[in-house]
Design goal:
Blueprint (H helix, E strand, L loop, with lengths): L1 H12 L15 H8 L7 E17 L3 E8 L2 E8 H13 L6 E10 L5 E12 L15 H6 L1 H7 L1 H23 L3 E2 L5 E2 L11 E4 L4 E5 L4 H9 L4 E9 L11 E10 L3 H20 L3 E4 L3 E4 L5 E4 H8 L15 H10 L10 H13 L7 E7 L8 E2 L2 E12 L2 E8 L4 H16 L10 H8 L5 E7 H9 L18
Parallel strand pairs: 3-5, 6-10, 14-15
Antiparallel strand pairs: 1-2, 1-4, 2-3, 4-5, 7-9, 8-9, 10-11, 11-19, 12-13, 15-17, 16-17, 17-18, 18-19
Helix pairs in contact: 5-6, 6-8, 6-14, 9-11, 10-11, 12-13
The protein binds one RNA strand of 73 nucleotides through helix 1, strand 1, strand 2, strand 3 and helix 4.
Length: about 500
RNA sequence: GGGAGUGUAGCUCAGUUGGCAGAGCAACGGACUUUUAAUCCGCAGGUCGUGGGUUCGAGCCCCACCGCUCCCA
């Protein structure tokens, strides 16, 4: 560090500008590659470019130097010859350190060994990197640093940068898809006087002036449906939700969720739209609909996806790990507990029938789903906002989408009968009294909104982070969140 | 919450039975006009996560705490 600071000082002393205000690159590295990728070895061109980026490698060769410049689009070799750049220019380049931001001008060429390069005629420092970068070959490996100082991870590990470029493109593709289908993007409150729309514990905060406790939202559901009451017909929101729970490879306390609501649609329409969205985004972002998963092999996202009722899935899969077959339509709670016990899981915290069914799903079904699958027709106890199925009053018109062992989406035909919704809230209140601290609390204002009339509506929530994990083949949610939650050092 | 692993130079990692703190890369000085993690010669770099204990002597053994990773509830 001291050596690099000294270089800065000597540059200033020599009248140089160590921290220029602007640069004027005319192209990205990828543009040069696209235009000259097929040059023959030893060929030179008159095509002139100005590139800007970080100097990541430097190889001295006497009166010749090679460097590697990276920008967001990729890396390109710099060919720096004393004959071309002059004695002064050569000295300037020689004084650069790995990690320095630079601007270089020159022409495209192919070296004798066939490496596309920029033959540099001018180079200047844009900003000094005073601290040495992580090692050039191994990159930054330490997970604590990769996530705590993500900027270093992005500099040192190209594949990590690519993950976040993919994430951005995926979110953009989702937006365009929904806008093309006539959806409006809206923003609803993050700070809410009541929380609801999901089974989760909230973060609590306080508004001083109003002297009122507020919750960070766990879902956007109830506000978005108020907008359907208001007549916006098709709305969506992409933004952070907050759930006060543990962290795991698929949980971060702050995560990004897409929710959409569509008037005049039911859960079947919603399933069709979702089945169209996911392959479309995969195609747009990765150029295909097949994902190569490191552990699970090929995952095919193209429609149609497998569709199976939750009852049939549990009936078929509950014999895994030595369990006994469970039919959730007829099984008693004790039988469900027994099945979970035989699989080595103690359901002592699962106090309700709904929670037990959820445990059966989590234990026996979810981890084993690899290819995209819709589980449909959930028990009413688990789904306080979903409409009953007309053919079977024990279940509701709801589905969850699973892929690669994870739930990525949850959707249903929305309850629009205010009396029915009120009864569901009451049942949730009973569950809470029985010890379920994730049960919904009564939202009287939401009931009132429904009393003004909500058209038949289908809604869906998609976990954006998990979807990006799928698209990028990452096994941990912390690899697709730029700054994941971590314990701060005191 | 429980279990296992891990923490040593800026980065990636060795460190034997408890006996002088090591390598590669980066940095610094030098050689080199076609390198590809360039190579070669030279030089320098440390509160061994933190605190305590055992010992003539601790990176190594013991205890507590902190961070991180994985598995389990």
């Amino acid at each position: 560090m001291d050596d690099r600071r000294a270089k800065l000082a000597s540059l200033e002393a020599a009248g140089g500008e160590p921290w220029p205000y602007r640069a004027e690159p005319t192209a990205h590295v990828a543009d040069v590659r696209a235009a000259h990728g097929d040059l023959e070895a030893g060929a030179e061109t008159d095509s002139h470019y100005v590139l800007a980026g970080r100097l990541m490698l430097k190889r001295g060769q006497g009166k010749l130097m090679f460097g590697e410049l990276t920008d967001r689009s990729g890396a390109l070799q710099l060919f720096v010859s004393k004959a071309e750049i002059g004695d002064d220019g050569f000295a300037v380049f020689d004084s650069l350190d790995l990690g320095d931001w630079i601007e270089v001008s020159g022409t495209a060429m192919q070296t004798r060994k066939g490496e596309l390069s920029l033959k540099v005629s001018k180079a200047r420092l844009l900003a000094k990197c005073i601290r040495p970068l992580p090692e050039k070959f191994h990159g930054l490996v330490d997970e604590e640093q990769r996530r705590g100082r993500r900027y270093l991870d992005l500099v040192a590990n190209r594949d990590s940068l690519d993950v976040f470029v993919t994430r951005s493109k995926a979110v953009s593709a989702v937006r365009r898809f929904l806008e093309d289908k006539g959806f409006l993007e809206v923003e609803t409150p993050v700070l809410q006087p009541l929380y609801g729309g999901a089974a989760a514990r909230p973060f609590v905060t306080h508004h001083n002036e109003l002297d009122q406790d507020l919750y960070l939202r766990i879902a956007t559901e109830l506000y978005l449906k108020r907008l359907i009451v208001g007549g916006l017909e098709r709305v969506f929101e992409i933004g952070p939700n907050f759930r006060n729970e543990g962290v795991s490879f698929k949980h971060n306390p702050e995560f990004t969720m897409l929710e959409w609501y569509q008037a005049y649609a039911d859960y079947g329409d919603t399933m069709d739209l979702f089945e169209e969205l996911i392959p479309h985004v995969a195609q747009t972002v990765t150029g295909g609909t097949t994902i190569e998963h490191a552990e699970l092999g090929e995952i095919h996202l193209a429609a149609p996806w497998k569709r199976i009722t939750l009852r049939d899935a549990i009936l078929a899969d509950s014999t895994r790990e030595g369990g006994v077959a469970v039919d959730i339509d007829t099984a008693t709670e004790d039988e469900m507990r027994a099945a979970l016990h035989t699989a080595g899981y103690d359901p002592k915290g699962d106090t309700t029938r709904g929670k037990l069914i959820d445990a059966l799903l989590t234990k026996f079904v979810e981890p084993f789903i690899v290819q995209p699958t819709f589980l449909t027709d959930y028990p009413v106890e688990l789904s306080p906002f979903a409409r009953p199925h007309p053919d079977n009053p024990k279940v509701v018109q709801r589905f969850e989408a699973f892929v690669a062992g994870m739930e990525i989406a949850n959707a249903f035909s929305e309850i629009n009968d205010p009396a029915m919704q009120y009864d569901r809230f009451m049942a949730q209140g009973d569950a809470r009294a029985a010890g379920d601290d994730e049960a919904e609390q009564l939202d009287a204002d939401y009931i009132q909104a429904l009393e003004y009339g909500m058209p038949p509506t289908g809604g869906l929530g998609l976990g954006i982070d998990r979807f990006v994990m799928l698209l990028t083949g990452r096994a941990s949610i912390r690899d697709v969140i730029l700054f994941p939650a971590r314990r701060s050092k005191s």
